Every structure is written in structure tokens, then in C-alpha cells.
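This part of the workshop introduces the protein records we will be handling. To make this concrete, we reproduce a full record directly below.
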Amino acid sequence: METNPTPTPDANRRDFLRVGTAAIALGASASPALGREGPVRAAGEPAEEWRNRQPGMAYRRLGRTGMMISEVVCGGDPITLKNYKHIHKAIERGLNYLDMAPAYNGGDTERAFGKILAESPKMRDRVFLTTKVSSFNSVRTRLYRKILDGLPAARQEAIRREAKAIGRSRRLEVPGYFLTYYPGQQKGFESAYLRAAMQPEFGDRVENSPEVRRTIVESILGLRRRGDRLAIEPCIPPDWTGFAITYRFGASTYRIEVANPRGVESGTSDVQLDGRPLPDRLIPLVDDGRPHEVRVTM
């Protein structure tokens, strides 16, 4: 849900940059909750959940959860198999939050984090590991804009005025308040404000649409179309023993069964199509009107 946050008065730019500088020294990024000091527990909040608590590192509650997150976190965008070993130093100093996305470096970020977690049986319990649906907002933006284009001109203008008002209230474009995370980031402001303005009235048509649901499911289960081939790269809880899904390509159907006998979170060891092993683990998509069986072992 996109809501209108209330700016935190005690989070000034100097404090933000001070923490950000420390983050850069560790090859990480500053956590977003700079305006709240210490592990304050409000009425009704869940009990604190601590991981990798180390002296010298400050921690803050993540939103309304009980997760106590280090003030220095590791964003996964620059992390690759050639650039990840410095994270060990950050974890030694108390960092406990690793963020990634399927789109980061073509999956290299996920593999690099996987190497870190595999180096020690207890490492997974020391960090909070997060991911996201990379194409989520682009799909939502397209659906909201399609609705907007079908509205009367006067209604479109009213929605655009509301979107601009939301932007002003969030103060992101106030000099000294916003810190650019990546080049061109400001280009996404207008779409984000538009989604926020339209969501109260049109959210059910977009957020519950088959396309958004499919985007989420395909991202979590790791289905990625690459030209005329399909890659399956699941990222699931280790206690999942497997799952099955039917994928349609033209008049053909692909019944995909994924087994997780080792209780892992990601990665595949074997992919077979109609009983035939696929060395590159990529499933060729053919519109031949026939049913196909795919078996994937993690």
C-alpha cells in the first residue's frame, strides 16, 4: 500500500549523511528509520526479534514488526560474485539486513548472498534476508495509466493535481531532504504519486488484477521468460517441500513440478523436460498444442 507518511522532524540531513558515510565505508547503505532512537516499544507492538546483535552497532525496529534492524544495511544492487566478500566485515560489526531482488545483476546478487549464507551453518540465523518483485511497480503503473487514459479529461486533471499534492506533502523534492540513490531515480516520482492518488478509488481493479497476481507468483516461484525459453529459479522458504504450477504458452501447457528434497531456499540441481535432462536448465517453449511435463529439483 502506498500511503502518505508524516515526515520525521528529528531526522536531519547531517545525521543521515553521517550514518550514510559509515555505510559507504562498509560497502552498505543507510537504513530508512533514522528518525527513531533506540528500541522503543509502543503498545501492541510485537516482541523484539534480534539477530547478530553486536556492541557498537545501533538497531531500530522495522516498522510495525518486531525485527530489530541494524542502522547500516546492505543493499544488493552492487553485490555480485566478484564483489561480496567485504560484507563479512560488515556482519562482524553488527550488520544484519541483506536486501536483494531478482533483477539485480541478472541473479548474481542472489548467488553472492547465497555463498555468504552457505559458508557457515549459523550464518542464516544472523541476518534478515529480504527480496522484492522487481517488475511489480512497472506493471501497476501501466495498469493505473490505462485506467487514467479512459477517464474524462476533467477527471484526469483532478487526479494529476492530487498526485502533485501528494508529491509536495512527501517533501522528496525539497532541497537537502532527498538523497539520490541511483541515477534517474527522480523520474519515478511522478508514477509513484499517480499510483498513490488513484489507489483509493481504483486499487481493487489493479492490485487484485490477474496480471499483478501473476507477476508476484512468477517472481516468487522464479519463472522468467527469456525469449523462447523459460528459466525456473525459485526463491522459497526452506520448509517448502516443493510446489507445482501450470504454465501456458500459446496452445501448449507445461506442467511444472518443483521438488525441494534438501530443504534449500534457492538454486536448482536438475531440470528435465518430458523426461529429458536440460543441461542449461532452460526450458524451450514450443507452441505445438501438446502438454509437457517439467520436473525441477532444487
Notes: The radius of gyration is 22 Å. The first strand starts at residue 29 and ends at 30.
